[in-house]
Specification:
220 residues; alpha+beta; disordered N terminus; 3 helices; single chain
């Protein structure tokens, strides 16, 4: 029938469309925005400190972006949703790493951060802020994922106003990561912080209630 023929023709074109997508993405590798990088891609990110108060993120090459597009096409050809690329499993606990990919030791971090939130590589290779302790403590028992909940830009710590401020669209978060100004719709994601026997900083998934507003964690 005409319907069967049309479906067959559409199916035969899918591999060529996927190939065209991969070929299109590759030349634009230098222009891939961090807003468009899938979270699974961030496992290989490189944290480079370029300013005293925060670092900037270098994201994966266009080859990985093209590979991700190829996998997405393969899933489509098999009739699976693209969302299958996204893992729903909670991330495994990890020892935080600094800009040189070295494990973060708490006393060294306290000296280097000088009482300010500081970026590290955390769960799934994502950027997280470790927070200075209160009432004599060295470090807070939670960390904040640094990505703005609006479109994923890196929210910078502004020590003058004591807020996290997104440079893309002006969203603001307080010192605990609670959103106080839009367009960001949600607070920054949380992670647990604990110390290993050797005093290294370890992050683990936060799956319980968000203590800041009593809601279920949107990121879990």
């Amino acid at each position: 029938s005409s319907v069967t023929m049309a479906a067959s023709a559409k199916s035969s074109l899918l591999p060529w469309l996927c190939l065209a997508l991969v070929c299109f993405l590759r030349p634009w590798s230098g222009f891939v925005s961090p807003l468009r990088v899938d979270p699974t891609e961030r496992r290989q990110l490189h944290l480079r400190a370029q300013r005293e108060d925060h670092g900037t993120l270098e994201f994966p090459s266009g080859r990985r972006v093209a590979a991700a597009a190829a996998v997405a096409c393969a899933l489509l050809l098999k009739g699976q949703p693209v969302g299958a690329l996204m893992s729903t499993k909670p991330p495994k606990p990890v020892v935080a790493q600094d800009k040189n990919f070295q494990p973060v030791e708490v006393q060294s971090w306290v000296q280097a951060s000088k009482g300010q939130p500081d970026l590290v590589i955390g769960l799934r290779g994502d950027p997280y802020y470790l927070l200075p302790g209160q009432d004599g403590g060295a470090i807070r028992n939670f960390a904040l994922r640094a990505e703005c909940t609006h479109l994923g830009c890196l929210a910078n710590w502004n020590r003058v106003v004591n807020k996290f401020v997104c440079p893309c669209h002006g969203s603001e978060y307080d010192a605990q990561g609670s959103v106080i100004k839009g367009p960001a719709p949600k607070s920054l994601a949380l992670a647990h912080v604990e110390l290993t026997d050797s005093q290294k900083v370890r992050l683990s998934a936060w799956s319980e209630e968000d203590f800041r507003d009593g809601t279920e964690p949107w990121w879990a």
